[in-house]
Amino acid sequence: MDVDGYVRVSTEEQARGGVSIEVQTAKVRMYCELHGLTLREIIADEGRSGKDLDRPGLRRALERLRSGESEGVVVAKLDRLSRSVADWNALIVEFFGERAGRQLFSIGDSIDTRTAAGRLVLNVLMSVAQWERETIAERVYDAMQYVKKIGNRAGQIPYGRRLANPGDPDDTRLEDVPEEVATVALMLELRRGGWSLGRIARHLTDRGAPTKSGATTWSKSSVHAILRRCERAIAS
Questions:
Q1: Of the residues 75, 124, 186, 217, which has the maximum number of CB atoms within 10 A of its CB?
Q2: Confidence at residue 12, expressed as pLDDT on a 0 to 100 scale
Q3: What mean pLDDT do residues 97-123 have?
Q4: Do 154 and 198 belong together in one domain?
Q5: Domain for residue 33, yes or no?
Q6: Of 98, 126, 154, which marks where a domain is finished?
Q7: What is the CATH number of the domain that holds 106?
Q8: The overall pTM is greater than 0.90
Q9: What element of type H or E holds 73?
């Protein structure tokens, strides 16, 4: 079977062990040799987040699947292709589902979609990921009620809220920002899981999570400030 290898690192990951382009490439080559796969090309995206599918290397890999130049893709881990459940659903339907006919091999997740078991594991992992996202949103609901207590703007707008009518200087009502609410949910879940503030900040940066200022990176202090507000709201 002719396959391509796909490797990716974000800017933050390039300096960390275990995920570098070189490490992923070595794993892909060894996997193909052990499993009798003909590796045609290693396609790389360097300094690219996995938040969506809009990456030049990934677009090339998917186009090769569509055209039949490649019959499958080998990755070190599933998150190298995407971190989005919605994107994974689309990839499975178009490429890696039973009817689509293309194959996915994930080394770290022990997935080989040539087999029924491999396809089952892939679909189960995606279902679990979706369940986790929904569970996180439910768990953080009470914590996010603190922003509801701020019916009108008074000073700085808190993370998770925005002006309901920014075009009217006299309207100080606030409303939720769904993307920011989801980010706070993720922060709380990771912190409860024992993650350090620095690790959470790096993870949010890698995911491309929205910041209130529009910056592209998160800092420990920003994460700490938001979590402190949430903890106070939970305690009150």
A1: 75
A2: 61
A3: 88
A4: yes
A5: yes
A6: 126
A7: 3.40.50.1390
A8: no
A9: strand 72-75
| Residues 189 and 136 sit within 8 Å (Cβ to Cβ) | yes
SS3 of residue 12 by DSSP: helix
Domain of 46 in residue numbering reads as 2-126
Assigned token pair, 23: 């490490």
Tokens 């992923």 -> residue: 24
Query: Do residues 163 and 110 both lie within one domain?
Result: no
What gap in Å lies between CA 6 and CA 105, rounded to an integer? Answer: 10
Please state, rounded to an integer, the average pLDDT across all residues of the chain. Answer: 82
Q: Would you say residue 32 lies in a domain?
A: yes
Q: Do 163 and 90 share a structural domain? A: no
Number of domain units in the chain: 2
User: pLDDT tens, 57-70?
Assistant: 999 999 999 999 99
Cα distances from 234 to residues 11, 65, 139, 174, in angstroms, run 35, 49, 12, 20
Phi, psi (deg, nearest 5) at residue 25? -60, -45
Is the CB of residue 52 less than 8 Å from the CB of residue 25? no
Partnered with residue 2 across adjacent β-strands are 38
| Secondary structure class of 120 (helix, strand, coil) | helix
Spatial contact of 92 and 123, defined as CB atoms under 8 Å apart: yes
Same domain flag for 24 and 55? yes
**Residue 215 in domain:** yes
The answer as to whether 180 is a domain residue is yes
Catalytic residues: 10
Residues 163 and 114 in one domain: no
Pure H helices in the chain: 21-34, 56-67, 85-91, 116-139, 145-148, 178-192, 197-207, 220-235
Q: Supply φ then ψ for residue 22, to 5 degrees.
A: -65, -45
DSSP code of 37? Answer: -
